[in-house]
Write a structure and sequence with these properties.
about 35% helix, alpha/beta, about 260 residues, 7-stranded mixed β-sheet
């Protein structure tokens, strides 16, 4: 089984903050996080789920993204989630059951048959992997030939990751090289800012009693209108914050021809 998390095997955020992804996509104006909400919307859109497909959220955490996928997918889609963190799986089971979302959750991929899924989503996970190539190999094993992978990861901005849970981050050209082996065909590779420039998003101006006014605006747009503040304001910042790759697994016959 691929060891998903290396820097923090227990992923302490779940112990410290509970099922925090659910709060970040929820309707509370301050608890909502427009970055996370827009990232999930982008992943659901790029996954392009079709009738009858089997879908796996690889590194599903507390299950919040599975809920978003369920709202975007046809009813005939079968949803699965995998996470090696037992606490995250418990949170996911409880939260998804409470919301009537039908899923099958796994703490290991070892018992999942090869080529079980038409689509795999993997968002903000690969930066936690001790051996990223093993993670991609495990996903390729689980995908059917021609199956779609949607993967996101932060864009590298510093020499070493600021997040202690991140083993490695990549510049876009570095990340693209992970998909060069013959098993993948990259459909698209985008650099996006899921919400707004973070300096502005988290700004607490003294003039407004240190209330994060722009964050409230971003969150209100995200909650009420499903709008990305960057698009709404027609802003294009100097730095991108996230990259999203859509790739297809190449069939064995195509590999032989290549």
């Amino acid at each position: 089984m691929t060891r998903l998390v290396s820097a923090d095997a227990s992923f302490a955020k779940y112990q410290e903050r509970g099922a925090y992804h659910w709060r970040e996509i929820g309707p509370h104006l301050l608890g909502h996080n427009a970055f996370t909400a827009e990232r999930y919307r982008l992943v659901a859109d790029r996954a392009n789920l079709l009738h009858g497909q089997r879908v796996l959220d690889y590194g599903c955490g507390d299950g919040a993204l599975l809920s978003v996928l369920s709202r975007h997918a046809p009813r005939s889609v079968t949803l699965h989630g995998y996470d090696p963190n037992a606490l995250a799986i418990r949170y996911a089971e409880a939260a998804l059951r409470a919301r009537g979302v039908s899923t099958t959750l796994h703490e290991s991929t070892a018992s999942i048959a090869p080529e079980s899924f038409d689509s795999v989503v993997c968002t903000e996970v690969i930066e936690h992997a001790s051996v990223p190539s093993d993670l991609l190999g495990d996903i390729a094993r689980l995908l059917k030939p021609g199956g779609r992978l949607v993967m996101t990861t932060p864009i590298r901005l510093t020499e070493f990751p600021d997040d202690a849970n991140h083993v490695q981050e990549w510049f876009p050209t570095e990340f693209a090289r992970l998909f060069e082996p013959a098993m993948w065909r990259v459909v698209s590779h985008e650099e996006v800012v899921p919400c707004a420039a973070p300096e502005t998003y988290f700004w607490r101006p003294p003039l407004f009693a240190r209330v994060p006014v722009f964050r409230l605006l971003c969150n209100a747009l995200s909650i009420c209108a499903g709008v990305n503040a960057m698009s709404w304001l027609r802003m294009r910042p100097r730095l991108f914050m996230m990259q999203i790759v859509v790739a297809e697994k190449i069939s064995a016959a195509t590999m032989k021809r290549n």
